[in-house]
Structure formats: C-alpha cells, structure tokens
C-alpha cells in the first residue's frame, strides 16, 4: 500500500456530499460535510469550556440521552452537537443556514454527529432502516380476496 499523498489529505478538508433527512418526509437534502475531530476541537478551544464535559461524554459514550440527568445536561448535549455541525458543514455552511433562517432538525444534527464519528458508511445502514419500500411489489402480498375490484 502506498503512502497517502498530501494532496489527498488536503482534499478531505473539502468535504464530501452526504444525504441527510430533509425537512419534509421523502425529500432528503444533500450537504457537503467534513469529518472533524472532537479532540482537536477541544484542544483548539473551539468547544467552549462550559461544554467540555458534555463533549467528553459524547466522545466517550456517544449519544445517550438516558444519562442526561436534567435539562441542563440535555441543553449541553444539544449545544455540543450544534458546535460539531458548525465545524463540519462545508456547503452550505452553518452560518449560511443561520443567515437564511434555516435551523437543522434533531435528526439532521444526529446524522452530522454520526458522520463525524464514524463516516458515511455508518449512515448507509441507518438510512436502510428508514427507507420505505417504494416498489410495493405490485400487490404481490395482498390476499386474493382483497384484490377483487368488481365487488364480488
């Protein structure tokens, strides 16, 4: 295996296209995300001190809202996920969404967080669970009695 070129490393910062659940059912949106490091964000001071405990918990255990002791814990998790989305959105940027008055949904924030932690492959299996059966197999599973259309 060859050493990865510096140009390839730099290209990762350009992000990749990721499909997120849309604002309306069955209308996904496509954004460009880059994977960010929570450790690097913390080290660079891009995670506010007040959120470091929540960020550490997310890093250590992932999203586990059952462990949230109170509303303040929940608020810190939400703020931490917003910081992650702000850092990872390449196109549109988080600031562009804010300027347009568009807020991300909880599900979109979860997708962005999962992408940052595990990459796009983890989202594929998550999406499969939510896809509808668009084919519907032309009524193959409908009992014959229900298929009659002439009332008999």
UniProtKB/TrEMBL annotation:
Residues 129-152 are annotated as: Disordered. Residues 129-139 have a biased composition (Basic and acidic residues). It comes from the Bacteria. This is Uncharacterized protein. The lineage of its organism: Bacteria, Bacillati, Bacillota, Clostridia, Christensenellales.
């Amino acid at each position: 295996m060859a050493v990865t070129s510096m140009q390839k490393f730099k290209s990762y910062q350009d992000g990749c296209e990721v499909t997120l659940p849309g604002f309306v059912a069955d209308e996904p949106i496509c954004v460009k995300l880059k994977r960010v490091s929570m450790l690097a964000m913390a080290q660079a001071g891009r995670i506010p001190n007040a959120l470091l405990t929540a960020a550490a918990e997310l890093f250590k255990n992932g999203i586990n809202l059952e462990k949230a002791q109170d509303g303040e814990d929940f608020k810190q998790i939400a703020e931490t996920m917003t910081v992650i989305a702000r850092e990872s959105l390449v196109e549109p940027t988080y600031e562009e969404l804010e300027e347009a008055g568009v807020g991300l949904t909880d599900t979109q924030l979860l997708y962005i967080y999962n992408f940052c932690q595990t990459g796009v492959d983890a989202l594929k299996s998550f999406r499969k669970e939510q896809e509808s059966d668009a084919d519907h197999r032309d009524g193959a599973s409908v009992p014959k009695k229900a298929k009659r259309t002439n009332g008999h």
